[in-house]
Amino acid sequence: MADNEDQIKTNPNKYFSKKYLFISIGLSIATMAFLIYLTYTPGVLEHLKLKRMPGIVIAIIVSFMRLWFSAAKIRALSENSLSWLASFRVMLSWDFTSSITPSTIGGAPMATYAMTKEGFNVGQSTAIILYSVLLDQLWFALAVPILLISGLFFEVVPNNTGMVGHVSMAMLYIGLLSYAGLMAYGVLKNPNAIKKVVNFLFKLPFLRRWREQVSKETDNLVEYSHELRKKPTSFLLKTFFLSTMSWLCRIALPTIVVLSLLPADVILSTLRSLAMNLAFLIMPTPGGSGGVEGLFAIFQGPLIDRKAFIGLAVFAWRIISYYITVGLGMMATTWYINRSVVELRSESDNSKKTIESEVSSTDTV
What we know:
The protein has helices at 18-39, 54-77, 84-100, 108-117, 122-150, 162-189, 191-201, 211-229, 233-259, 266-279, 291-300, 309-364. It has 365 residues and is mainly alpha-helical. The longest helix has 56 residues, at 309-364. The relative contact order is 0.15.
């Protein structure tokens, strides 16, 4: 653990934008409304079976299980230094920022900031978040062969996506495997490589002024990465298990929602859910909004016999998987913002008192 002096003194507001929040929610609502408009027919609600409605409750439970597994992974990576409450705060802030920023930005910077506010220095925080991302990448690397083999027996990528869809997914598979390999090499095998790349980037003119500070933090990163590499195999297996369970819960949600409306091919729905969750990673819009709703309709829509249910399925799934996370994550992120404001105000008051004390001493002399 580090003292507060070792923690970064930055404003958490810079890690997300209210503009992105409004764009993300706006795109999501607009796309859902468009899908419902295209697919809804009067009287469709009469075809809902009450005996299937508990499926929605199960979906909500699975959604909260995903949150628990994600928080448990963060706590395990901190070697239980984080309390359960702090682990949930970090994870929810990460999820929230990921949900309202473009995929290329993600929520890792906010998660790193949150970790520093929980008492870790930047190097430790970065290493833990980086290791968490690595576990996700290892899961993706495992998922790709599963989809490739399954594609020999199932129509994992719907034919209605055409050649463009199949080529895009193939490029995505290659990209994920390559990135996972680089991440594994950098974190598990040669963390000094990451340090060299980061130090090289901060030689650029517009980044040079932060070079000295970043150099110190990359040293911390390398040191903590070496510590993580010394962990027993059981540590890696435990954290990978928690990461895998979190992703399995995420993947199960679309299928559970579909099944709560009407019967469907469970295996094919699950495989398509896995494929579309990988495709979500490259959505350029904030939180993937607009794109993820469309992908749900493309991948899961053909499995829904009553086309009027497609819009309803997208709506139910997005409420459970997105809006609940945004609501809880906003509360967690606001907690960090309020804490930052209090700390800055306290520092300002202490500085004033110090100055006043020095002036008073001078006057006395």
